[in-house]
Amino acid sequence: MRVLFDNGTPRGVAAALKEHVVEETRAHGWDTLRNGELLDAAEAAGFEVFITTDRNLRYQQNLTGRKIAIVVLGKGRWMLITPRLPAIAAAVAEVSSGSFTQVE
Questions:
Q1: Burial class of residue 97 (count of CB atoms within 10 Å of its CB; 0-12, 13-18, 19+)
Q2: From CA 4, how far away is CA 48, in angstroms rounded?
Q3: Backbone φ/ψ region at 98: left (φ over 0), alpha (ψ -120 to 50), beta
Q4: Which parts of 1-104 fold into alpha helices (H)?
Q5: Which of 30, 92, 94, 95 has a CA positioned 20 to 30 A from the CA of residue 18?
């Protein structure tokens, strides 16, 4: 799957997603886009999963009809995310089109 990391997603998470193609928003010049525009751009580019640390995303955006699956990390600090890498990998493996998953 093609996975897009939001700006706040620690790069080290990619190590748990070796079987996926992981890219970052800044590599596409999308780091200044707002969430709705970013999700539109990601879907248009063929990304299947968006990983973010923005826990308010589901309240800020209407996610109905989205094709891209969204995985929200409950924590943004690497030392807090490290023990959750297996859960993050499992969440990405289990997503379906348009789904929303939060990993605490």
A1: exposed
A2: 8
A3: left
A4: 35-44, 57-60, 78-81, 85-94
A5: 30
Is residue 68 within 8 A of residue 98, CB to CB? The reply is yes
Total length of the chain: 104
DSSP 53-65: --TTHHHHS--TT
**Residuewise pLDDT in 10s, the chain (104 residues):** 999 999 999 999 999 999 999 999 999 999 999 889 999 999 999 999 999 999 999 999 889 999 999 999 998 889 999 999 999 999 999 999 999 999 98
